[in-house]
Amino acid sequence: MPQNSICFMPQEVDKSANLTKEKIIFVTDKKGYLLLCNTKAALTIGVPMEQLLHLNMRELIRNGNINTSYTLQAAENQRIERGLVTTKFEAELLAISTPVFDNKGELLYLLTSCVPNPSRKVTPSNNPGLKSVQTGTFRGLVLAPENIVAESSAMKTILRIASTVSQTDSPIVLYGESGTGKEVLAQYIHRQSKRSARAFIAINCAALSESLAEAELFGYDKGAFTGAQAQGKIGLIEAADGGTLFLDEIAELPLALQAKLLRVLEAGEIRRVGSCVNRTIDFRLIAATNKNLKQMTEEGTFRQDLFYRLNVLNLVLPPLRERPEDITMLALKFLKNFNIKYNLNTNLDINTLTTFQQYSWPGNVRELRNEVEKYVISNIQDNSNQFLAAMSGMAKQISQPNCDYIDSQENYGPLKQAMRQFEEQYIDSVLRVCNFQMGKAAERLGICRTVLYRKMKAFSEAKRTHL
Question: Which positions fall inside the Sigma-54 factor interaction domain (predicted)?
């Protein structure tokens, strides 16, 4: 990891962040009984976690904890429902309830997420800059066109930091494994910035032809070289004037071009190939890489002066295996997109979602997206299982979960029983990722440590009962 820089790690906590910005998440069965929820839900509704998990949404309305339930509406209408909910503490929330069906179209459960109503005025604070930060964060988390999934605390922290640094013009370097979504985050920063109305130019440095890279980046005047267009051509860097330039895989940029890029950053000027005229240019640079630039400078494969020019703000995107809370929501987001693209109505069953949770995802979000697309396309085939077996490499690598209660039609049981088993498997997968550190696992699950211990004890007692 590069030294002597402002480096934001996902584990850092934004002390100034308002806790009410965290999403309230809960899962109910088709009758409205709560199966899963996070600690934020219990605190906001005003019911202890151990009591909340035994209640029905209708009881919460009767008790005055909430004034209405879009979960019940989504269950009745079997479609996504959204609207405003007021809690007993007069907090106004924007709720979105999404029904989840099995392959036969039967309603399995409902997933509901709530955030503070972004249109409601924020109470003035002693911190004069807090209101603008809150408004920007709400706009990013709730209304952003990218609709970035951020259920994990790591991604929530990254989005808060990204929303803050987007208001500056300092260079940013995004570090992370391939497929973690660095370009999506770069677009998010651009759309939150004052440059959002101008161009966002993305360049993959690894895809640049070495012989034509300079002309592609800096442009050229007419007659600059054999084969050049008669009228000349604007370069990609110049096209980003007034906007944001995103250099993906910047570690692959040839050393000669690194020197020219440094000159552009230092002087704010660009010179086309074959020209003797400097053109003033103004853009915000965001770079991304899956390599250690500091180490590359020591090895002589990346210019030291360019590294220190870029090394102002760093954001580190965690791999998908370190934020399992995001997997299900990402899968559902991709499912919705591909259903629209292929004009289908495919659903992800619990078995598939559990399998996704147990996989290590070496290809990160990109691999998850591809697997969901294969899953959706497989439903066009007469035999979807054979199609997936032939097309999906993941199916050969993953250790299938023990989901006999789902796979065997003879063993279909009550939905509550299935959800309890799913909950146990999910908690077990998070514990494994956290090396069975109960505090860390509880934080990732969004529940209190005591609640996690109580659930583990209940799972153990249930197993002894069935022996």
Answer: 148-377
What CA–CA distance (Å, rounded) separates 197 from 183?
18
The reply to whether CATH 3.60.21.10 applies to domain 19-120 is no
pLDDT digits (tens, 9 = 90+) for 186-212: 999 998 899 989 999 999 998 887 777
Do the bridges between strand 107-116 and strand 24-29 make them parallel or antiparallel, or are there none, so unpaired? antiparallel
Evaluate whether 365 touches 180 at the Cβ level (below 8 Å): yes
Residue type, 452: L
Within 13 Å of residue 319, how many CA atoms lie on the same side as its CB? 12
Architecture of domain 153-316: 3-Layer(aba) Sandwich (3.40)
Ramachandran angles phi, psi of 245, nearest 5°: -105, 120
Tokens of 336: 């919705």
Q: Is this structure's pTM higher than 0.85?
A: no
Mean pLDDT computed over 400-411 = 43
Which regions of the chain carry the CATH code 3.30.450.20?
A: 19-120
**Boundaries of CATH 3.40.50.300 in the chain?**
153-316
Separation CA 285–CA 422 (nearest Å)? 44
